[in-house]
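Hey Z.,

So I finally got round to the xanthine thing we talked about over coffee. Here's the setup:
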Amino acid sequence: MGSRIDSEHPRVPAQARTEARTEARNKLFLGSFVHSKALDELDYLHDAAVCVDKSGTIVAVERDCDEAKARETVLPRLGWDADDVEVVRAREGQFFFPGFIDTHLHASQYPNVGIFGKSTLLDWLNTYTFPLEASLSNPAKARQVYTRVVRKTLSHGTTCAAYYATIDVASTNLLADLCLAAGQRALVGRVCMDQLSPDYYRDASAAVAIADTRASIAHIRAADPSLSLVRPVITPRFAPACSVALMRQLGALAAEQPDLPIQTHISENKNEIALVKELFPPHTTGAADDSYAAVYDATGLLTERTILAHAVHLTDAEAALVAERKAKVSHCPCSNSAITSGAARVRRLLDRGIACGLGTDMSGGYSPSVLEAARHAVLVSRHVVLAPGGEERDKLSVEEVLYLATRGGAEVVGLEGTVGGFEVGMEWDAQLVGLGQIGEDGEVVVGEGRGGGEEEQGESGDVDVFGWESWPERVAKWVYNGDDRNTKRVWVKGRLVHQRKF
Ligand SMILES: O=c1[nH]c(=O)c2nc[nH]c2[nH]1
Ligand SMILES: [Zn+2]
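And the result:
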């Protein structure tokens, strides 16, 4: 078992504590709303109203509805007390957008973002990653890192994150507690790895890995019994680091607890794939062939609840198997470029009906921002077009990568219909986006602290809007040049969890 940490009272930012006390009010959001309608289509609602009840559920979406109309017609229809409604208005040029879903990241690797040199996966793990992850068995360090990563990702509009922690149970549980306290939706995985990693950072046996995984699951189930905000996720690190016995037992655990997702890595790097073939000839697993996907399938880990990170080099037969099992893919383009893994052919996966989302994969990826992952997804898809066998239609558009960042991600983490869009019955996981507005004299009139004085006006970074751009052009400018300076406020399940101060 890992070291002990008192995770009863995680330090919660004062702001979040206050909000937790004051947030349980019905809310009326007014202004422009942008969300995905289909893979390649955004829906723009202007002068609209969205009503969110005390539980954080969207109960009305009204087009062409200003505040007066909402008060006259919508609030009475909902039976709401018009004097006890919190009104949140997007200013001219601002818009509400669904919160981002980061379908794959390692909270424990956050201190290493940007530190990878010229390494590739297997040497990167040994040089940079395992030593850092092992060091997080230090409770104070774990608290420092995990507190920071939750705040940082929220500040970039990530309302839901599928986290890997480490093999240490206590600090994994602390990460779950911190997510719960800060109000971030999360999948939190205690990492399982009983072979081929250094002695100082390895499960002593499959039995220990299973017992520790069960302990972490029990903690998270107790902390959030409905699993409505934070869920445990069964996490075999990747096949090379897991014995067949461990993978089989994790597959059995997943079958025993059908409300839990599974996350792992697949086909990220060519040397890794060669290693899988060497380690797991079909007779060791009973697999149909020696492919990577077949190893997971034979051990009960390739299911419709499985999130497969990377899937860069899947063969057509493997892609067909993944589609047949309805497993999901987390596309991590920033990581795949940074540690020279390759360019995933996302269109090929989508064409097969495989649900895909985006992952930052920190710290294989160097950025905590899903917006950064989205723009990398656009660029990597251009390289796919240029590579042998590439086709023009492999290109991903701004609309498509925003779909992957929201609705696609929701499907990947098993929350389709709950988050990822603005529809009645969905939960209000959202961000208020503000872009800089340039005046006639060429100076910034909104943003960079000018033009209104309200907090969220703040600085608007690198996105300058001149006023003649169409809404799709504004959104494209945000995707290519936006960052956390444009993320003015963030809500999860109706609760304000981040507000930009400058
Ligand atoms: O991107 C990755 N990050 C990791 O930590 C890891 N471990 C195995 N395979 C991995 N891939
Ligand atoms: Zn990863």
